[in-house]
């Protein structure tokens, strides 16, 4: 039943950081709009992340330009609840028109007249422009190799909150991006026996020569890279702001007691097998780490910066036994594994967006967020315009570009009208 029909210029769907940024820019341009959020502002930061998570970047970097984190040191790593509080406070500060508790059920293009009809849990809205800001990480993905055994407790990293929620027994964490390594580390420190399955990864140093890697990626132009390097599309990045921030070092994790294994290959007859690629994956991560040190050194030399040398950053620990003699197969019961945590990333879900903005593989078709369906925009997607597009600071700039695009299109629409 239609309980309400509103006509407005732009509807933004989702009030995570992307929706909040979008709304700020639309407000600044005087474009009437509404942000519809099915839960709460920055819900993903409240309930879609584990309890102890802190931002991966320091407070001076992982924020929007127009507000600092209140009461938090610039170099600190902000706890996730405070990140969510920040976006709520931001929305309040700029009086952004966000309506929470409203779910968008469908968006369809109007027939024979401009704009879109948006069906929501609270009624129908019509808008000229629609911005899909429902996040880069919408649907937790567990790969098809996951075993069917009911005796195993299996969760995605999105459903992991703390060690206490897990049953007794050892844990296999599959995936060693920022989520997988941080969760494995936390579980091992809580006294759990932990296996960590390590695939291809980048692992920048937390800091080098007194600058955080976020700074280095900025000055070296790497946040602005417009596409991942060929062959690196599936390479995850392993960084951590936990315990004051530290470089992710797989050898150190191994010495600490985390049992490292290669990429998880298959589950069969109560056994799990791993690729014999652990040492190679770690070596490639080292290459990426060293490449950043080299680029940083060259930058310092070229610009004559007075930043102290740090030769010890190039010394690696001895390989722990689990790397030198990798386990290629485990009997799950014998190893005592009762839980598998799949830190294997996320997929997209635009089932509600019924417009011509997707390719034959159902991937959003767009250029810098401007989709192939005129009037429909995507925001917050990986590599939307650059490496930084999914991150707090990056999405703000993408949102500005899209708001400007909407403003320009409005000028065309207004031309010749009295
Ligand atoms: C573990 C983890 C740690 C991260 N740490 C950092 C970090 O330290 N620094 C950083 O910059 N980035 C970090 N990120 C990346 C990124 O900042 C977050 O994923 C962020 O939540 C993305 O913001 P978003 O607004 O694009 O999407 P989301 O935060 O996912 O927001 C989308 C919103 O859309 C709403 N929604 C979805 N469907 C509908 C619908 N049909 N109708 C209405 N509303 C809907 C959802 O409820 C949600 O609130 C991290 C990501 C993860 C997974």
Automatic annotation (TrEMBL):
Keyword Transport part of the UniProt annotation: no
Alphabetic keyword roster: Oxidoreductase
Source species taxonomy: Bacteria, Pseudomonadati, Pseudomonadota, Gammaproteobacteria, Enterobacterales
InterPro entries listed in its UniProt record: Auxin_biosynth/cation_transpt, FAD/NAD-bd_sf
Lineage top rank: taxon: Bacteria
Protein name: FAD-dependent oxidoreductase
Pfam families the UniProt entry points to: Pyr_redox_3
GO molecular function annotations of the record: flavin adenine dinucleotide binding; monooxygenase activity
């Amino acid at each position: 039943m239609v309980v309400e029909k509103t006509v407005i210029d732009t509807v933004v769907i989702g009030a995570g950081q992307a929706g909040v940024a979008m709304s700020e820019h639309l407000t600044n341009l005087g474009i009437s709009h509404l942000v519809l959020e099915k839960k709460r502002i920055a819900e993903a930061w409240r309930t879609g992340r584990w309890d102890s998570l802190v931002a991966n970047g320091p407070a001076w970097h992982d924020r929007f330009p127009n507000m600092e984190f209140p009461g938090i040191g610039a170099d600190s790593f902000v706890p996730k609840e405070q990140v969510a509080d920040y976006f709520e406070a931001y929305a309040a500060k700029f009086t952004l028109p966000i309506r929470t508790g409203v779910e968008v059920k469908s968006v369809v293009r109007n027939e024979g007249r401009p704009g879109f009809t948006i069906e929501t849990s609270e009624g129908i809205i019509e808008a000229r422009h629609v911005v899909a800001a429902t996040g880069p990480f919408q649907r937790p993905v567990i790969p098809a190799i996951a075993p069917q055994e009911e005796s195993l407790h299996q969760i995605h990293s999105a459903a992991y909150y703390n060690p206490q929620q897990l049953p007794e027994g050892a844990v296999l964490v599959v995936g060693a991006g920022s989520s997988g390594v941080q969760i494995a580390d936390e579980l091992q420190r809580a006294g759990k026996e932990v296996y960590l399955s390590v695939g291809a990864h980048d692992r920048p140093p937390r800091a080098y020569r007194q600058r955080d890697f976020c700074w280095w990626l900025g000055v070296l132009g790497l946040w602005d890279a417009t596409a991942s390097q060929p062959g690196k599309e599936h390479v995850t990045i392993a960084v951590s702001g936990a315990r004051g921030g530290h470089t992710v070092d797989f050898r150190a994790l191994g010495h600490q007691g985390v049992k490292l294994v290669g990429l998880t290959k298959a589950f069969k007859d109560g056994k799990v097998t791993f690729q014999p690629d652990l040492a190679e994956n770690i070596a490639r991560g080292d290459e990426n780490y060293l490449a950043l040190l080299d680029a940083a050194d060259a930058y310092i030399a070229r610009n004559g910066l007075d930043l102290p040398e740090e030769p010890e950053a190039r010394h690696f620990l001895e390989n722990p036994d689990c790397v030198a003699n990798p386990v290629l197969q485990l009997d799950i019961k014998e190893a005592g594994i009762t839980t598998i945590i799949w830190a294997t990333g996320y997929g997209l879900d635009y089932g509600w967006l019924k417009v011509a903005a997707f390719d034959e593989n159902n991937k959003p078709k767009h250029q810098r967020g401007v989709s192939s369906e005129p009037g429909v925009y995507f925001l917050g997607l990986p590599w939307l315009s650059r490496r930084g597009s999914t991150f707090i600071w990056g999405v703000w700039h993408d949102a500005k570009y899209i708001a400007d695009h909407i403003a320009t299109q409005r000028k065309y629409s207004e031309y010749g009208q009295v």
